[in-house]
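Hi, here's the filled form for the chain we discussed.

Project: internal
Contact: R.S.
Residues: 325
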Amino acid sequence: MSFESTLILASIAGIIVHLGLFNRGEWHLEAPHVVVGHVLLIIVSLLDAFRERTASQLLPHVICFSAAYLGSLFFSILVYRLSPLHRLHHFPGPRLAAASKLWHVWQCRDSRNHEVMRNLHDEYGDFVRTGPSELASFHPDTIAVLEGFGTQCTKSDFYDLLLPDHSLVFTRNKPLHDARRQVWRTALSASAIDAYRPRIERQIAVLLQRILEAATTQSTVLVSDMIYWYAFDSMGEFAFNQDFGMMRRQEWHFAVTLSRRALSLVGPFSPAMWLIKIGFAFAPWFSNIRAWLAMLSFCNDQMEARTKVSLTLLPPTFPTQSPQG
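And the returned structure, exactly as it came back:
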């Protein structure tokens, strides 16, 4: 096959892949596989070209082939997203947002998505196109429509963040959500919450003790840290049957520090879940991704240990050691 014919076929293939494949359904979970698939495609192209061309001709051939395919693929995607044929074309919003979610990621690079959304609302009104296939609604009736009784709407791709793990909050599987909600409904009933009251009162007592100690010695209290410690110590009581001991020791627990580092990924990258999935697949060594994976491992270990012990509602004293990951 001639070089020109190869380029024409590559260009046609890019358009066909977009219209016949990527333009249908959700692809954020398959993003790592898409990357691997295209790398394999380039390798196959290399092997095929190696049979007919010299080494000096090989690299230009592969570059031209890849440029023709990827160029037509992205061109087709861009034209469709900005054309009147797109279902969201008539909604107002930044043109770059309609072209790619990377625009939204860049706007959220300082983890202030709430300010980005407020500015979009001020400029464009109650309904704003914030992505190629995303619409943000600021109308007060939206909550009832999306989350009211009998709704057929599902959660966004953001709630696939923990896959392949599942949780009550982070699942888009309605039967699984309903089943787990029944369990939590029992766990968070009035009588169950009342049984935890002594534990929470103990945490409140420690919080007040630390504040009074600071007042007595006229030392400074970082209220934001203290409340953060109180919240996580209390959540540890609910989730793991032991607190993290941060208020008692007046220092951060390593698992909570991991959590804060890990969640720093969510701020800038939550608008493009496919980017997070690619990062998890190909850059697990990256600092914040490593912290994310360590945090999940800690939580899984603690929950596994928690299922093996019986619940003691009133321990005589606080645990002397914090949970270990």
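Let me know if anything looks off before we file it.
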